[in-house]
Amino acid sequence: MARQVTGAARRVADAAEVLRDEKFNARRIELAEAALETLGELGFARTSLREIAQNSAFTHGVFHYYFSDKLDLICCCVRHYKAKCVTRYDEVVATATSRDELTEGFLAKLAATLQNEARMHRLWYDLRSQAMFEAAFRKDVLEIDKSLEAMIWRIASRYAEFGGKRPASSPAALYALFDGLFQSALLKHLAGDKTAIPELLDEVRRLLPTVC
Amino acid sequence: MARQVTGAARRVADAAEVLRDEKFNARRIELAEAALETLGELGFARTSLREIAQNSAFTHGVFHYYFSDKLDLICCCVRHYKAKCVTRYDEVVATATSRDELTEGFLAKLAATLQNEARMHRLWYDLRSQAMFEAAFRKDVLEIDKSLEAMIWRIASRYAEFGGKRPASSPAALYALFDGLFQSALLKHLAGDKTAIPELLDEVRRLLPTVC
DNA sequence: CCAGAATCTTGACACTTGTCAAGAACGAAT
DNA sequence: ATTCGTTCTTGACAAGTGTCAAGATTCTGG
């Protein structure tokens, strides 16, 4: 009987702890999201915790309550960013019923991303570069890279499928190609080059039939 | 006569100034080279002028004598880096007498670069990302990117030439592809992945005949 | 309603940063 | 050898950094 009570008490306590953990985690994500704003604006090198706090509704102390240190915060940011990013094109893949539809959907999304989410994406490239110096970032960054590669592969596979074919290159090569093109277009776009986006679209439109 | 003397004096003065300028510039490059050491080790975000000075034979004051500020120094580093980088594969292109020779020369250089100059290359990716935030870097970075694209294009053109063909894609797409692959391999290599280099070589070996 | 835990604020700390200025060391022309 | 301009060293400054801890506030279970 004592054991049962203990068991029940344990269950209640566990449930409470789970709840607390969830709340704690939700807060962490709120904070990470706020941090992403400033990180996207200033980049990793120029972003301090105080700056993050000032551009948000939180005080700088809260960040230390929820994160063990700055790296911990930024790792959380990276992980959270991943979840948003990795499914960006999946709807297009799911709803397209033809090659053309898939192409146009993909291109439209590509243009919109470049136009509206330039800051988040430059942060991604920044952090991926940071991972080359800071080992703490590597695991998450490599994981995200894999997910993005898989995302591109899903698009390419579907595209090839519509033509009754198979993609002509490996997932790694396809991802390298599109990521490289996107990165270059992003830099030009940020530098004020109005032709960056249309040129990227042209290039991708030309490329798709040749690689898939 | 007075005019002649003035003219001669002017010429002498000019010559002296040119000499001083050259010496000044040579010193700047020495300092930039020293700075590149630390930058390659720590990355842009974690590198301070004092750290640079401590890892070199110079005191931190000298850097402020030769550079107006930190950005000026790093811009000079980037420009200097460019000169070294952009001709890396030209000897291979010049001396190869067949497809195979070009392929093997290119792959060997690729592997050696990844192995021995990982630090300089991660710095390049770092600074290219910084250019997405810091306008002061953009001009130089875009220029270097163009030069690298041209370098890849020379390789691909020569390769295609050996086969009596023309490259199948645009310079931009080819550069994006190889740069993307290299970047990914570099990250994996730095993360301790022993298969990164051989996998890159395999991929490139497979890719070359299909794109050129 | 109240005690204790969780959450948050505030201010301080030790340290690092970029920048600058005063003067020392040096080199070359007179 | 002296002088003057160049080059370099040193030390200081203000501003900004991550981190922490003490206390205020809010929430919650009893």
UniProtKB/TrEMBL annotation, chains A, B:
Pfam family, one: TetR_N
MF (Gene Ontology): DNA-binding transcription factor activity; transcription cis-regulatory region binding
Domain HTH tetR-type: residue ranges: 25-85
Keywords: DNA-binding, Transcription, Transcription regulation
Record's keyword annotation contains Cell cycle: no
Keyword Cell inner membrane: no
DNA-binding region(s), chain positions: 48-67
Domain of life: Bacteria
InterPro entries cross-referenced by the UniProt entry: Homeodomain-like_sf (IPR009057), HTH-type_TetR-like_transc_reg (IPR050109), HTH_TetR (IPR001647)
UniProt name for this protein: TetR family transcriptional regulator
Organism: Bradyrhizobium niftali
